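Action item from last week, closing it out:
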Amino acid sequence: MDAKTAQILDGKALATKIQSELSDRVRALQAQKGRPPGLAVLMVGDNPASAAYVRNKERACAKVGIASFGQHYPANATQPELELAIRALNEDDRVDGILVQLPLPEHLDAIALLYQIDPDKDADGLHPVNLGRLVRGEEGLRSCTPAGVMRLLQEYQIDLKGKNAVVLGRSILVGKPMALMLLEADCTVTVAHSRSQNLESITNQADILIAAVGRTEMVTANMVKPGSVVIDVGINRVVNPDGTSRLAGDVDFNAVKTVAEFITAVPGGIGPMTVAMLLENTVSTYSIK
């Protein structure tokens, strides 16, 4: 490895390995249970990014042997209609995991819909019961993106005990559960955000830096401690001057890779790991029924 270039933590390769392991596990379990595991994804409206994510999830399900029970509703679907659909999926023995694809049209209450999902079928790990289990250190379905970060760090045998971890971002999707998982792994954790003062001095203390703010390439080389681990959770679409577009993270990859020891790329880092953890949550629920 070039001494001046960080080693890339390859989430795509690890996700492929996890999918292969899950496929073997599903084959063995299906012989006993007489049915495949099932994942239901509810999508509302025609958001192109959401449609692409749902197709990606369905393709991943097919590779592993998970049956997809996707339900696509028009943009004018009502709250009661969707709550009724979720309650029916809760009762459906073929369905082991349920998730609502976000974002939803503005007239819908995403949190109220999330509360309708049976916590033991909560494939995204975002129900308050599962977040409470995480806070208490109990077994439960874990939020997919931060769980994917933890699995990737584990795969590369990166020692977390006693290390300073800084999480940039405080969302319920990533930042808050990420901080709890790092704390559980014996890190000393700081959560920084848009109102944090002296942000550069905070990030420069990080042995492990997790960027999850949704701002294109905001983490620059001067914000990164030499020899640290930088995990980029951001996925931002950037339009080039010629009208084409590309995906970029929250980290200025080309600059930061000359400072950090380990780094994730976008795409190919945490995105595939998020999908792999979604599949793992579904198979986990299926296996204990």
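Closing note: The chain is about 40% helix and 15% strand.
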